[in-house]
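Write out the bound-state structure for C2E.
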Amino acid sequence: MDIGPHINKFIEDTPQADFRESSIERYSAILDMVLKGLPLGEMLHALILLIEAQKIGTRASVLLLSDDGKRLLFGAAPNLPEEYNNAINGVEIGADVGSCGAAAYTCERVIVEDIEHHPNWTKYKELPLKAGLKSCWSEPIKDSNQKVLGTFAMYYDTVKSPSELDLYLIQEAARLASLAIERSRGMHIQRLSSTIFNSLPISLVITSEDNVVLSANPVFKSLTSTYYANLKLFDVHRFLSHSKAEEVADLFEHLKRGHAWKGELKGLKTDNDIIDIALNVTVIRDTFTQQNCFAWLITDISARKNAEKIISFQTNYDQLTGLSNRKYLFETLQAMKCKNSIDGKKQEFSLMLMDIDHFKQINDTFGHDNGDLVLKLVAQRLLNTIPENVLIARIAADEFALVIPGKMCTESLISMFNNITDELKKHFIIADQDMMLSMSTGLARYPYDADNVEQILNCATQAMYSAKAHGRNCMQFFNQQIQKDAERNAELHLYLKTALIQNEFQLYYQPIVNPFTAQITKAEVLLRWIHDDQFISPDEFIPIAEESGLIVQIGEWVRMQALTSIVAMQKSDFTIPLSINVSTIEFWNTDLQHRFAAYFDVLQQQFGLDVFPYSLLTLEITESLMMTQQDSINQLLTDLRHRGMQISVDDFGTGYSSLSYLVNFPVDQIKIDKSFIQRISSGSRHKSLIEAIVSMSRALDLSIVAEGVETEAELDFIKQQNIDAVQGYYFHKPMPQEAFFDLLAKQAESIARLK
Ligand code: C2E
Ligand code: CA
Ligand code: CA
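---
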């Protein structure tokens, strides 16, 4: 605050020479205190004593206006009674509130010569009169902007009006008080700012335009001390050297134009310590140098950024494999699609969906921990084989997705798939066991197959299911046929759900005969589904039932029906064993041992059956069940065999099982798949294959059924091999129960006749 004009004005206004002298003394006394930075209360106290000394008989007071400008607070009044001071403290100002309340309110001097009779004092006069105060003149104390800071008042114990000199004195006192108040407030603010500056938990440095440090707070010094030791210059360019160049350029462009800037950048704390910072730069005009200076507010936000990174990792990446997750894949595909709309060009990409074959079995056999290990190894192998620009994500338990950007020819995509397959073919050691993996893969191309992300995922999924249906371990490109098949599957799945309740299933029976005598020795039970008068082949609906788990209920129904047939046969004279197909899926979900006990209960109740006909049942399993190599399944089958049931390996030779499985597995029979029989006429090599299967079966003491025998030539060859059980159109097609029973009855009759 510039106090020169105060003094000049004051001296000019002062009327008398002796008064002027004492006035200058008072002024310099107060000034001295102001410069020493004494507390305000002390200065006001001294001021009052100086005034009272000048004007004997007066008792003076200073009241200060509260920050909200509504009340008067005690400032100094050493010679007024304490009781009076306490009563005044906090009084609300107003146009008719005593002398001081009115002066503060109106910003005008208020002279009350006779407190007792003045309207302003009507409400308050008891107090002053009790203290012996009869008149009170109050001068508002104003700052350099004419804003009221408080009041200076002189009290007398007589009714009294002021002389001209009195008025000068009261005015002088108010000015001196103003000086003391303003100055002490200024210092207070300055001290406050400096305290804030030093205790600010954020780095703050003020620099000139040429990066000279004008002021820096302790946090800034400790942030940069090791690197920028002996801080005279703040090398901003070096500090921000790891930030994005365009952002730094934008910052300096703003500062050049005198504009503030804020954003998030990288700060170089030391040579190898780069931190994330939030930067807020304000431009201040220094009126002294007429140059801009910059206040750099720097917050270390590394912790927050790290937390954000972790959160982003958790939301966008798969915890187990570290690959991207489904959400991230989806967003990436959406973003790739959005790019199109900007330049109008479609950003082409191929989406490969890969599903590990038989992963459920791996999980069930080796446990979930080992299952997780397999997923991690697969992820690693994918990363090893895939080019860097390909995004790999794990989007479901054992499903992986690859997004291959750009237009790729079919050959390149196939070659990429082959590389992956080769890598996966390399053995995995899991739980001390050697294992080989394969994947069923579906591929869809954007924008050719579909032009939105949901649909392209859908296309790839359909293609992947198609790969599974084509024997797994292969890749299928999406095409219209796949689309149709998928629609058909979805439709069948829907109908299949209600097929049991709607009685749409029926059992057919295909006799198995002795090729030499044509006698029916056995029969296979085959499921038929008629929906809406349409025959739907089991080859079509069984996989859907397996996929959806509906096979479990269906299988129950088949077995119960087959057993009922056996009971019916037992009541006639032509009982033969029945062969029932059991899907591998059913072994995961059903405890067959106990199920048979349950069927027995029902049969006992319904038909009074007393022995369960285990010996009249054969379970047809597939090679995939043998592959699981699960002890519990071994035990189950062994147990069922001990009870008299037979176990037959269906479609033998079409699966992937190794012969060693056959040696160790509890089976009685193999059924040579019809594909081998049908190739008999194609040449000697095919015949040799059957011969090999036959001799191996004999060596293992397994009985043989030849399936799908249609022609005389096929039958002849089968006979040459001494195979004593044949199932095929040559003899009989599958037939309804009635026809089958008729056939059996006729056979029983002719046998009886022969006897
Ligand atoms: P599968 O177990 O191999 O059954 C033999 C299939 O070969 C039957 O087809 C039968 O009709 C057919 N077949 C028999 N002899 C000949 C022949 O000489 N020539 C030709 N071309 N085919 C012949 P189907 O009944 O269509 O059954 C197809 C498959 O559906 C079955 O093959 C079996 O895997 C499955 N399946 C049928 N019923 C059931 C069932 O109740 N449960 C389960 N899980 N699967 C079943
Ligand atoms: Ca079968
Ligand atoms: Ca078969």
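---
Residues 302 and 308 are 10 Å apart (CA to CA).
The longest strand covers residues 273-286.
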